[in-house]
Task: inverse folding
């Protein structure tokens, strides 16, 4: 089955950045049917709230991967909304000129914070998607910077013109799936955490297969296991093909 992986970190805490390592990752991925990977960058190498200079270095690393494998990697520009509009626009414009096709957000702030507004307006103006790290953090102090599905869904509601990927189905679980209903601009990815039986089936039942995108979160997770969550689930073949490939193909305008 053909696969597009919308959530990867080929370089992670500095590991995996040499050409032989990248060659190996691409060859192994292709052997599993993966045609393309969205590269989100080495997002935590400088801590949760990177400076403009640190962001630039991370995005430059992604640009190197795109230069080596332009048909395989798709770059998302990693940004820190707390740095303000000028810094956001500057780094985003630089990355878009290099062929990046989306924005990645991690844990610098919560998705419901006001600092998101200039970034989301820029995403809307350029018509590019935003991938937001999301986890079940309701009632936990970490929610200050780790967005809960309530926060990411609120973001999608506030900015209906921006396509948002709420990352980590296995991190936000059943409640996140329910929060994601009735938000046509919100997609979920299947990445992260340990798999458990029935969750893909539940997401397909509640959301339909069209807003579910396959993601792995490599190298934190193993590719074969992440693919198996979808291929081994009790959904029909056409839904599997949508989740693993055609939804992302449409979402990323790859036609
Ligand atoms: Zn990730």
Result:
């Amino acid at each position: 089955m053909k696969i597009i992986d919308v959530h990867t970190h080929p370089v992670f805490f500095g590991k995996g950045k040499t050409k032989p390592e990248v060659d190996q990752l691409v060859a192994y991925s292709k052997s599993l049917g993966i045609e393309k990977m969205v590269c989100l960058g080495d997002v935590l190498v400088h801590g949760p709230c990177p400076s403009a200079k640190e962001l630039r270095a991370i995005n430059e690393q992604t640009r190197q991967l795109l230069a080596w494998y332009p048909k395989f990697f798709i770059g998302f520009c990693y940004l820190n909304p707390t740095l303000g509009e000028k810094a956001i626009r500057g780094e985003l414009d630089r990355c878009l000129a290099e062929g990046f096709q989306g924005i990645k957000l991690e844990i610098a702030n919560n998705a419901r914070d006001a600092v998101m507004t200039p970034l989301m307006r820029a995403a809307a103006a350029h018509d590019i998607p935003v991938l937001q790290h999301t986890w079940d953090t309701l009632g936990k102090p970490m929610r200050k910077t780790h967005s809960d599905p309530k926060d990411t869904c609120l973001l999608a509601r506030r900015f209906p013109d921006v396509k948002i990927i709420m990352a980590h189905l296995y991190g936000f679980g059943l409640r996140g799936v329910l929060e994601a209903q009735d938000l046509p601009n919100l997609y979920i990815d299947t990445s992260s955490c340990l798999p458990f039986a029935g969750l893909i089936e539940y997401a397909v039942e509640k959301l339909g297969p069209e807003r579910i995108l396959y993601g792995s979160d490599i190298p934190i997770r193993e590719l074969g296991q992440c693919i198996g969550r979808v291929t081994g689930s009790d959904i029909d073949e056409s839904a599997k093909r949508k989740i693993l490939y055609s939804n992302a193909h449409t979402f990323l305008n790859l036609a």
Summary: The chain has one domain: 3-251. DSSP finds nine helices and eight strands in the chain. The chain has a mean pLDDT of 97.
